[in-house]
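Follow-up to my post from last week.
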Amino acid sequence: MARPGLVVAVSLWCLTLASSPCATASSPDWCRLALPLRAEVSRYRPIVNRVLQYVLHGPYKGRTWAELARFTDTFGSRLAGTANLEDAIDYVTGKLRAENLDRVHGERVEFTGWQRSNESAWLVRPRVKNLAMLGLGGSVNTSSEGIKAGVVVVTSFDDLANKSSQVKGKIVVYNQPYVSYGETVVYRSRGASAASKYGAVAALIRSITPFSLNTPHAGQQRYSDGVRPIPVACITVEDAELLDRMYRRGIELEILLKMDSKFFPNAKSRNTVAEIKGTTHPEKIVLVSGHLDSWDVGQGAMDDGGGAFISWNSLVVLKNLGLRPRRTIRCLLWTAEEEGLIGAQAYLKGHKSELDKFNLVIESDEGTFQPYGIEFHGSKNAACIMNEIAGLFESINATKMVLSKENVGSDIEVFENINIPGASLLNRNEKYFWYHHTEADTMAVEDPDSLDLNTAMFALISYIVADLFVDLPKS
Amino acid sequence: MARPGLVVAVSLWCLTLASSPCATASSPDWCRLALPLRAEVSRYRPIVNRVLQYVLHGPYKGRTWAELARFTDTFGSRLAGTANLEDAIDYVTGKLRAENLDRVHGERVEFTGWQRSNESAWLVRPRVKNLAMLGLGGSVNTSSEGIKAGVVVVTSFDDLANKSSQVKGKIVVYNQPYVSYGETVVYRSRGASAASKYGAVAALIRSITPFSLNTPHAGQQRYSDGVRPIPVACITVEDAELLDRMYRRGIELEILLKMDSKFFPNAKSRNTVAEIKGTTHPEKIVLVSGHLDSWDVGQGAMDDGGGAFISWNSLVVLKNLGLRPRRTIRCLLWTAEEEGLIGAQAYLKGHKSELDKFNLVIESDEGTFQPYGIEFHGSKNAACIMNEIAGLFESINATKMVLSKENVGSDIEVFENINIPGASLLNRNEKYFWYHHTEADTMAVEDPDSLDLNTAMFALISYIVADLFVDLPKS
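User reply:
Got it. Predicted complex:
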């Protein structure tokens, strides 16, 4: 998944309000960080150099990519609720144990799973054309004969409202332009409900992407309360445009849609946990995370194999280098993120008593492309410290610090929502949504050097925050 | 299709050998064009302005795109040998007649057609994974149970030779890197034969493309004489890399390949012809062309709907503006290009007696992206004239002239091979092979303004060459 407000897509205010733009880590005017604290952060410079040397040029070079490749090549996609995901979790758990990380274990999560079966969409009038498609997570099925119906093409919710009188008994095709993921994904998540309100029998949504090679994108959707649930799938940008052109010419279109899937009311999975236990404040937590589950298309290499693997590899790097901080670094490999942050929500519920000990929650779920800094969500005082830390990444050109008004993760938003500071890496993820939730989410997206940079930065940010004399201030 | 030596891929020598590079149309040192001829070419400037005004800003603006969209939306892919292509040819023929072009007719072509039926490839060991694939044109079938066999992955013909002792009874997977279309397409065209020589039972070729979203590419292949024909298909870049990684790890791979297709020994189609008959030398010909057939995936909008449509629209533009040149401009919309220039070869055979009257053959089969000049294959003396003509396209930044040592077209190569000058447009087709022979060859690739520029340039180049006082010199 990806949070709607992903940094490629939304406006963020930059920490550096003075003349110098946020490309450098020079302190902004309003940062009045006590000199001893600035000095303390700068004292981590030798550790920064040591970790970067070890991961970028030393024995760990290329290892995150190699581990991720072996993992995704072995298991492929890892839909929550499948035995394949559980096997994949066992495999990673074994890795974490073999690395002698602390307190390696799984924490049970229960949920209603969903799994696609046979599905297809065909334009049958005025000509026969297969429409590449992916049923959306949580969609209801058609009958086995499918739904054959006329078509109304709309380009927005407003356009749907204008054409509402024509919609009854029809399949609504959304050909909304792509603006940004955050602004456009509402058509995927709410398009079926909006169409059903006017009596549509199914909805086909143009995939949420700025670029397509006739590529359908999967994703989750939810029915609004009180509307009749109708089958809903994503089709390709190209086919949505084709249908729109034909519709505008006044051609009567008919589509045959067949969708079959199963719901599993008592699906079980696990969040996977490993730690480097803190020396003096083991009860205080810096959490570093990604999700192990994926959609059922592609190989889940980018979303979110990369994020999960830089998370646990960052702990292995620290362990190998004997770097044990004052506080505990806890690695969380979430499950069932794609179905709606189910693993993270279960974790929050199960760990209420210790949440006040959480100093920082870190996540990578927006690509592990070349990083160029830190995105942070929290207080300005905490941001000033993060800014100092970002300044340590000069040698890898990753000193940018952006203080976001919004959540900076998907799973970790459950923590951010209760005022726990959140962080992720800024990375060159301009093409993230080309691959997102498609068959093209494979190892071809992942670059060994970029993964090394991500692993090293995750190791260093979590280590420094976990080791500082002061907690990250919440206000 | 695309000729292997497409300009994006091969080194060409530039006409302008002097200090000024070939970006301008200034005459090269060795061009000693007689002043009256230079003056004559420059006298076409008002006509150039008139045609550009009419197509880019006047009543014809956007029409090529609109015509092409309506055509591809109506017919979709147009595989040679299908009724759909014949319907599409009827449709275009009707258009040409409605425009009152001269001598509109079809010329019969016979050939052995090939049509894919059900096909699939699955990795079945060590895990089950669908491999997106497209059987290659002319491939033999598997039995209905398919071929289940172990796998040898190679990265080149040399690598295949090194591993030849392991190949017997196996499926050979080619994971050759993409260098250029011209250099890499030999794996598609000859990979099956090379593998069969060592006893392989089937071959799977990494698709010939620099970029993929798990996109399989179709194409033609040919068996060498004397080898046992084995089934052959293209798989995706991503899957070829996946199989290669697993193979290198020593994992035993097994693939189940099922392919079914039909050969039609007596398929019939037509080359489509229209003319603007010359005023004083109607027997002399400037030919302007593209092919109407396509592969059976995608919509054939780029390959080669665009090329065919700028060809016939360029005649309509001239007709509408009352521009009738001294020589005849003949529009040829080839058939069965994808199966190996079958329409063009039949045409050559049927028109032997008039070939000495052909002044120039023009083709567009490498995309109708933004044009920036002319690519020419012929004598230096002719090139000097083409250079003068290119100079007329200053206002649209399309003055570049490249004299190619190789053929500059696919269909027209049959004419170029017998010393008839050939020309095509240079255009910004860097991404051509992203879409080539895939489901992504749709109207989304085509841009209205670029199509206008292509149509206008085709109209003007063919008009000026057809109208000059001198024939284009062959030596």
